[in-house]
């Protein structure tokens, strides 16, 4: 419960509401111009307290920057690369716009307008990542009892543009590997195993089983803001990946005479093979030369070789579950979402199988 009292001001009569908070502190809100407004406020306080939804108004006046730092420190469950991305988006986009604003002052319409402004200069994926960070900060504030609703919920975000995967044929893979010279085995490895770059760069010699032709993918390396960080594969899942016999010779050459604990693939300095260096010094020029010689050769990045691995596996008869396990996707549904176009032929097979079964049934009946 609570009480309502009137008091005089230079502008006339005003009303104040006194009430107790759930933690038994006495507090007050003043400035109501009518008794009815004060009564409605007191009623809303009583209802929200009864439902366990009451929020201390003083907490709602906390600056977004304060909560953002608390939220960031709490992100201990994500990988270093993801955490580095959060820090970048906070410093460059979120805090400059919302840092000085109080939580209670953040409006849905203003967040929508901000997203619209970002969309004029940034790509859809980047805008979505930035919005994700702000939404996470505000969601943290809700869990901490500072606000009751998230003004970033329901924001209309830019649609992600679909980009066709740059699938290579076996012949194109060999051509690209040849153009990469003594680094061509990197292309072959990525195109026939589907490993992510960080998984390949983190693969140790003793994780290769040449007898069974299996790779034990147990760790990965990332480069958040240029700093080398060792960790687990994406989704924190260790997996076994098969590799074809054509990789045996180049892998044996890489491993010969070296310590079993060393990485299979290393840079010119003997350290971690960095994606940026390989792409800028070797890969991009090799792709350009291939495109000049072959009109059907797509423009692609080293990561796109992972798509090629999926394509070649499917064309060799692999089902969606096998492709999921090879690529380390969280689920077969995710594999289908990413590579739905690769399984179009399966739909034709279903139709043909139905035709065959139906025809067989008719013959048997006759």
Describe this structure in words.
The structure is a single chain. Helices cover 50% and strands 11% of the residues. It is mainly alpha-helical. It has three domains: 2-54; 64-143, Orthogonal Bundle (DNA polymerase, domain 1), CATH 1.10.150.130; 170-330, hpI Integrase, Chain A, CATH 1.10.443.10.
Secondary-structure blueprint of this entry?
Blueprint: E1 2-9, E2 12-20, E3 26-32, H1 35-51, H2 57-60, H3 64-73, H4 80-98, H5 108-119, H6 124-143, H7 170-179, H8 184-193, H9 197-201, E4 208-209, E5 214-217, E6 220-222, E7 229-231, E8 239-242, H10 248-255, H11 275-293, H12 304-315, H13 320-327, H14 332-338, H15 344-365
Antiparallel strand pairs: 1-2, 2-3, 4-5, 5-8, 6-7
Helix pairs in contact: 3-4, 3-6, 4-6, 7-8, 7-11, 8-12, 13-14
Annotation, overall tally of beta strands: 8
CATH class of the largest domain: Mainly Alpha
N/C terminus separation: 85 Å
Please list the strands of the largest sheet in the order they lie side by side. Answer: 1-2-3
Question: Which terms summarize this structure?
Answer:
366 residues; mainly alpha; DNA polymerase, domain 1; hpI Integrase, Chain A; 3 domains; three-stranded antiparallel beta sheet; 15 helices; 50% helix
Short description:
The chain has 366 residues and is mainly alpha-helical.
